[in-house]
Amino acid sequence: MPFELTILGSSSATPTSERYPTAQVLNALGRFFLIDCGEGTQIQIRRQKIGFSKIQHIFISHLHGDHFYGLIGMISTFNLLGLKKDIHIYSPSQLKDIIQPQLEFLKAGLQFNIVFHPLNFKKPQVIYSDKKVEVTSFPLKHSINTCGFLFKEHPKEANIKKEYVKKYNIPIPEIIKIKRGAGFQTSEGEFIPHEELTTPPPRPRSYAFCSDTAFHPPVAEIIKDVDLLYHEATFTEELKEWAQNTYHSTAREAAEIAKMANARQLILGHFSARYKNVSPFLKEARAVFPNTVAAEDGSRYEVGE
Fold first, then answer.
1. 7 vs 24: CA distance, rounded Å
2. I need a surface site. Which of 18, 143, 235, 276 has the fewest CB within 10 A?
3. What are the binding positions for Zn(2+) 1 in this chain (predicted)?
4. Which is the catalytic residue, given 66, 130, 227, 297?
5. What are the binding residues for Zn(2+)?
6. What DSSP state is assigned to residue 132?
7. Is 36 part of the annotated catalytic residue set?
8. Sign of CA pseudo-dihedral 59, 61, 62, 67
9. What is the pLDDT of residues 100-115, one digit of tens each?
10. Residue-range domain boundaries for the chain
């Protein structure tokens, strides 16, 4: 099953001719999660051929305009397309008040409910979970209340070795127990441990989104061993003081978080429009964390590869 991230926007406060403001879509085992919704998100979703009807869960990290100004347009498009399933929005509680007047204007023809889920800015909290995926929000360090998001695949059950099923004629109820961690006792009284009967399942995949934030080491423990990390890198080290004053990170600081978290791969993004190319970001980050790439609008990344 796919676990794939699509970058829709990778610029910071203002868009450029090549980069839209922050927005991403994560396809986690067939669940399509929209992460932030800057201006132009609809256009990028069209370009990437992502079906609007697949998106029911929207995560808004904070209430700076470059992270949510595309939201009311998205909601309007959902309505014009005749979508009827509820839309769930995980965001700061104030977002409901901000867009309520616009929603009231659409209300006469709105064909679905919008369910708001307020974020917790004091500690990590599971905000979504189903049989296959869990999403945890966690506080970041920014000029206003901001959350990051950790998307994790639930652990799969172990795979039972077919030769043992045949050899010991293991019944289906016992197979289910074995997959969940039990051993098996044969009709002759011999006990076969779980580890011998099975092969380990694939390691659960995970993706973490960290934008916007100043350098904040506590995040590293929350996202420990994450497969793919997107971390804002608005500036390079030459503007570190400016990054600190605006509660943003440099490319080097993003790489340090990735290293502390033992991430497998780092994606840099949220680049300031003052930079004409991202080579300095990559050079700076790779000196600390070699497996680093720079986000490009429209690029896709397999989580866990």
1. 5
2. 276
3. 62, 64, 142, 212
4. 66
5. 62, 64, 66-67, 142, 212, 270
6. S
7. no
8. negative
9. 888 887 766 788 999 9
10. 3-156+202-296, 159-199
